[in-house]
Amino acid sequence: MANYQEIVHLNVGGTRFATSWHTLTWVPDTFFTALLSGRIPTVRDETGAIFIDRDPNLFGLILNFLRTRDIDLTTVNIRALRHECDYFGITPLSRRLALCDEMNHSACGDVLFYGYLPPPLNPPIPGNGNNRNTTNCSRKNSTASNTDVATNRSHSRNSSLDLRTVGRIPSQDQLSRCGRGHSRAASLGNSESHKVNTWADSMKVQIIKAHHNWIAVAYSHFVTGYRLTDSCGWYVVFQSPVQDSVIERIALNAKTGGSATSSGSNTSGTDVMLGIASGSHVRLWAFSTHTEPVRRTLVGTFNLGVRVEHLLFVGPQLVALSGAGSRSKAGVWHTSTQHWQTQDVAHLTTHDTAGSFLLLGTATGAINYIDMQKFPLRMKDNDLLVTQLYKDPNQEPITAISVYLTPKTNLCGNWIEIAYGTRYGSVRVIVQHPETVGHGPQLFQTFTVHQSPVTKVSLSENYLVSVCSEYNHVRSWRVTRFRGMISTQPGTTPKAAFKVLALEAPTAQPHNDCGPYGEQDEEQIFIQKVVPDTDTLYVRLASNGKRVCTIRSVDGSAVSCFTVAECEGALRPRRLLLCGHRSGAAQLWDLTAPTDRAARPAPPAPNNAAGEGEESPVGEGGPSPDELVRLLSACDLDAAPAPLPHSPSRPLQP
Question: Where is the secretion signal located (predicted)?
Fold first, then answer.
């Protein structure tokens, strides 16, 4: 039997410690009991001390706890110390540290947390025949009709309150299958293990979209629709039929055909259209939500001929786009004519919308447009009226485009302002005057600050923001306007330069778009998701990169997709961050107040320390070095995509 008073000499990371056998072994089943019993082979230094290759500073804290059964946490990194306790198996201290860590986090979220949409309790499975009659959460089974119309909701307005009650946020121990976070039950000594739910991975949220006060949550083979009312919050309204193919793109359009009320009455006359794309095929449904039960009608199934890369609504028209090299195509379903039409669009690379206009950038340097209001007039000619609006002076491939329509005035109509980026890093602004209809837009200004292809560009009332492919490097400028129109006096002023690092695979980027998000007459934001498997997002101002807030999943599950939407409530519009998760749930965060606070101008520096006309240095933005290291520790950098591109040579100037 070992002598409990025997002195044990340790060399931890080059620092020597001496303690008793009893001190190291009074906690059973630890690293030390295995080490001193010979179950773990020992390595000794030149003095005979047992060598342990760990952090000596953290080990000293653990050793003091083993001596005194007490610890001072005033200057301790709890996360790092807890990691060491888990390594050494010091369960009593690890439980205390876990509980301390949980005091900073709640399953009810923080002040920005706005809602939790639980995953379906009975997810439909492709091919099992239940795509005509589905259930979700507390809803009862409904009977589908024998026509193309199907029903998806059987609860009344009052029973929708039950849905919010049943859809509770699961505890962290219930979500331990996600491999993240600490079990609350374990921190209190509950060693009960939970089996992994095998459907979790297949049921992760693939895409999340929003329009007005509606949300569409897409899983691999079906889509669930939610509606927001002030009295009931979010509740399930419809569910799409189960698709045999994996859903790759969705589009949502909520249009009001009657007088909607804040109480969400079934007589509000609200109809919703949902488009789903898989491969080259597009399916479009219309949901009549003002009836009880909800009527689901299949409008049609269409074939673009090539894989659909973008699916969107321009007004009531559903548009499918593909930029597959020389086989680029545009397909449009027009609601009033009930007609689907496709047309080749040479070398399509990017797009944007403004009012009824759909603008298309091409690899040949041309900007084309389709006016959806004129589209029905030429239906008999089978022509989408794709018209060239502008040609880049250097014929550089256009890789990003943003349209800004100035407000109409009594003096003139809308100015059309277009900012676009090219493959060779140029950012240009062109302007179309109302009085020069019939003439092409005029080149207004050119910036050549990027050395890599421009991936994003945004022109708003106050700022011009561009993003290139070098780790999402951002440049921003403050825009000068006169009577609402962009002005050359004194012109644009450089604002900031920063990076929105995101190590995401290209296949996931369409559903994890960093932005910028927001209306063009207000402050826009970026959403930064650094690594693919993370529960943390950073919200940053698009104008200067300043951090607005940090969002962390309330249940520890990783974020699989996200978007930002302006939801129109009866009380006030809200800017919501919508996150889909690998657990199958969706979490909502209200960014309205923190964005407004972050966008307020900073007080002037004393004695004009920042310089005349200059702004103070930008404060905290993306993750700090400590946060970044923590995020990257869970990411295999060797397997991560390399966002740093090869910068193509700039062509000779004409």
Answer: none
| Cα–Cα nearest to 296, from 242, 241, 232, 236 | 241
Distance of CA 304 to the CA centre of its chain: 27
Long-range CB contacts for residues 159-162, cutoff 8 Å, separation at least 24: 160/232, 160/235, 160/236, 161/232, 162/138
What is the tens place of the pLDDT at every residue in 107-143? Answer: 677 789 988 999 887 766 665 544 443 333 333 333 3
- Start-end of CATH 2.40.10.480 domains in the chain: 305-391
pLDDT digits (tens, 9 = 90+) for 42-65: 889 889 899 999 999 899 999 999
One-letter amino acid for residue 314 of the chain: V
**What is the Cα–Cα distance from 427 to 477, expressed in whole angstroms?**
12
Distance of alpha carbon 646 from alpha carbon 641, whole angstroms: 13
Q: How far is CA 556 from CA 107, 190, 483, 534, 623, in A?
A: 9, 19, 49, 9, 18
Tell me how far apart the alpha carbons of residues 254 and 228 are, in angstroms, rounded to a whole number: 12
CATH of domain 305-391: 2.40.10.480
Q: Give me the sign of the Cα torsion angle 493, 495, 499, 502.
A: negative
For the domain with range 7-102, which CATH number is right: 3.40.50.300, 2.40.10.410, 3.40.640.10, 3.30.710.10? 3.30.710.10
Contacts of 301 (CB under 8 A, 6+ apart): 281, 282, 283, 284
